[in-house]
TrEMBL record:
<keyword id="KW-1003">Cell membrane</keyword>
<dbReference type="InterPro" id="IPR035906">
    <property type="entry name" value="MetI-like_sf"/>
</dbReference>
<dbReference type="GO" id="GO:0006865">
    <property type="term" value="P:amino acid transport"/>
</dbReference>
<feature type="transmembrane region" description="Helical">
    <location>
        <begin position="24"/>
        <end position="44"/>
    </location>
</feature>
<dbReference type="InterPro" id="IPR014341">
    <property type="entry name" value="Ectoine_EhuD"/>
</dbReference>
<keyword id="KW-0813">Transport</keyword>
<keyword id="KW-0472">Membrane</keyword>
<comment type="similarity">
    <text>Belongs to the binding-protein-dependent transport system permease family. HisMQ subfamily.</text>
</comment>
<keyword id="KW-0812">Transmembrane</keyword>
<dbReference type="GO" id="GO:0022857">
    <property type="term" value="F:transmembrane transporter activity"/>
</dbReference>
<dbReference type="InterPro" id="IPR010065">
    <property type="entry name" value="AA_ABC_transptr_permease_3TM"/>
</dbReference>
<dbReference type="GO" id="GO:0043190">
    <property type="term" value="C:ATP-binding cassette (ABC) transporter complex"/>
</dbReference>
<protein>
    <submittedName>
        <fullName>Ectoine/hydroxyectoine ABC transporter permease subunit EhuD</fullName>
    </submittedName>
</protein>
<feature type="transmembrane region" description="Helical">
    <location>
        <begin position="186"/>
        <end position="208"/>
    </location>
</feature>
<feature type="domain" description="ABC transmembrane type-1">
    <location>
        <begin position="20"/>
        <end position="208"/>
    </location>
</feature>
<feature type="transmembrane region" description="Helical">
    <location>
        <begin position="82"/>
        <end position="103"/>
    </location>
</feature>
<dbReference type="InterPro" id="IPR000515">
    <property type="entry name" value="MetI-like"/>
</dbReference>
Length: 220
């Protein structure tokens, strides 16, 4: 028996590539949601109004203190008991997006706290609308130092997508397990999955570094 069967690896490659599209889709959509929701949570947590800051703080600490696996289990298996039914893919995207939104919220908060106090006072003195102040003055300064951390969470989210196989999302790892259970060969599919995650993680890390370099050279 061959240690690594290249013919078998080539035969299963198309199935794994199709499943990888789900992995990339979940990562892209989930991270887009996490970026937006995380920013809103960070702003809410910094609010002087307790009606915004307390719920945001409670949600962030609760999500950060519980495993992603438990969260997606609740979304997919428990919520239907209360009339909220989601497909496995919907539950997976919502779960991983909310999980990482709470982490990116803390990254955003650190960036916002690092903006010089004089900048906050300036937008107040100019009577700028909050949306305009954040868009034109505050966020451009807050995002530069936190971009590497956000990029790290993008790679981490990609590597966490196999957790969603626990709720039957047919992403790359689930497809590899299906192939292994049918063929009783796990070496080839798991190896190909590992190489996929390695390659995509390196590409994403390179992209983040390039984006960081461009922002560093952008006019301030």
């Amino acid at each position: 028996m061959k240690l690594f069967d290249w013919d078998f690896a080539l035969a299963i490659l198309p199935d794994l590539l199709r499943a990888s599209l789900n992995t990339l889709y979940i990562t892209a959509v989930g991270f887009a949601i996490a970026l937006v929701l995380g920013l809103l949570l960070a702003i809410a947590r910094r609010s002087r109004l307790a009606v915004f800051s307390w719920p945001a703080t409670g949600l962030i600490e609760f999500i950060r203190s519980t495993p992603l696996l438990i969260q997606v289990y609740f979304l997919f298996y428990v919520f239907p008991n209360y009339g909220i039914s989601l497909t496995a893919l919907q539950a997976g995207i919502i779960g991983i997006a909310l999980h990482y939104a709470c982490y990116t919220a803390e990254v955003y908060r650190a960036g916002l706290d690092a903006v010089p106090r004089g900048q906050w006072e300036a937008v107040t003195a100019l009577n700028m609308k909050p949306l305009t102040a954040y868009r034109d003055v505050i966020l451009p300064q807050a995002l530069r130092p936190v971009l590497p951390a956000l990029g790290n969470y993008l790679v981490a989210m990609l590597k966490d997508t196999p957790v969603l196989s626990a709720i039957t999302v047919v992403e790359l790892m689930q497809q590899a397990k299906n192939i292994g259970s049918e063929s009783f060969r796990y070496l080839e599919p798991i190896t190909l999955v590992g190489l996929f995650f390695l390659a995509v993680s390196l590409i994403l890390a390179w992209f983040v570094r390039r984006l960081e370099a461009r922002m560093e050279h952008a006019p301030r």
